[in-house]
Amino acid sequence: MSGPTTRFARRIRNAAVVCALGLIAGCAPWRADARAWASAQPTITRELGARARPLGELDAAVPTAAPVWAMVREAHVIGVGEGTHGTREFRRLLHGLVVHAAHEQQPVVLAVELPFNMVLALDAWAGHGWSPDPQIRDRDLSDPKLLASGWLGAVQESRELFTWIRDFNRSAPPERQIRLVGVDVCMTVHCGAEIADYLVDVDPGIESQARDLVLPLRGFDLERTRSPALAARARENLAELRGMLAARRDRIVERRGVDTYESAQRLVWLAERRVDIALAWGDNPVSPERELAMAGTVAWIRDRLGGDGWVLLHAHNGHVGRSRPRMPNGRLSHSPQMGEHLAARLGSDYAVVYTTFDAGEFLAFHTRGRVGAEKFKTRALRAFSVRPAPRGTLEATLRAPTAYALDVGEATAAAGPLADYLRAGHWSRTFTYAWRPSFAVFPVGWTGIAPAADFDVLVYVPRAAATRP
């Protein structure tokens, strides 16, 4: 009896959920926007056609993004956002911007939303940094030490970009080589091992001691337990490692250069931030401390460049925007994002490119998790289909038949419905690393933005393709 009863109860529950979803969809917050801007829509479309710049070469063998680069090149830190982590056109846009920056004869850093320690090997593979693995530059990008497989960064578009960077670095003088840096905290199972690598390289006799000191960071015991005692031990050990690095600074600089020494110290700083986050939030990847740590690392990169060159910061739209995104329930997200911290610190030296699309596909992890979860239990990667955006959303109001870039500052400098629209708040597409088709019934794939306040350039794609694993 319990089996049929359970199945019947499940059906009743599912029917109730479907009914609730219908009510939610009927009260979609963008419907008010559709009514408010209906009379201005023809003029908005006409003005958009006059001001937008076409982006027609994102699929070239070496993509170009000249209109976007012209709009943002005066800033030294450029946040290149993506509405999903699995959209081909967004990755090709980043590739094009890297090419434009590299040809400006100035230093360039590609800063990516990945753990700092993880990207060290990729930077060495691309010809710039140091790695304890002498064979690193002979490895294939599919190697687990580099891009491996089975995650959203291990796609053909990323392999094409990193291969282009490697080829560029081979003929570039050291001061003009493109550097790859991860801005995220150390979130891997082997967190801390790289700190020991730097020490052992110049002083092999301390290997055992250095490896023992990073043990509290190995695995995810701290995230699981949130133990104050384990956190205190980890902090004490990291302080000791910092001192060991400082005592061997001259040897590290002489052997590997000052850049390598500063990277080692940054590893310690980011490992300390990992301890802070784990103690406060456990294994939740969404935290104000993480956003602040990422912003701090971007600022550190910028300071090291001096007055020249560019930092191209690649992350989700939600991380790079100037202000806090608004959730479908109307409330602001619970903490300032990386871009908000950077805007406060850098002012006009920080520019933001916001990317979105109307319909098509995107790559993400399939999940059976619940709507609104901050951490998902994920399954295999797959491409998800997306229907055209509903009336009232930014994508529908600024719809066009071809991809374009819009200089938001220029567009809002003039009077007219388009300028008024860009100054107001609206709903725009946003997808996380995990998705399931039923999520589309809820207004969870949307975020509240105010274009003129949040970003400098809008890049729109009418029909997107998923990245290719």
TrEMBL record:
It comes from Nannocystis pusilla. One of its GO terms (biological process) is response to antibiotic. InterPro entries: Emycin_Estase, Hydrolase/PRTase-associated. Gene3D superfamilies: Biosynthetic Protein domain, EreA-like (biosynthetic domain), EreA-like, domain 2. This is Succinoglycan biosynthesis protein. CDD domains: Ere-like (cd14728).
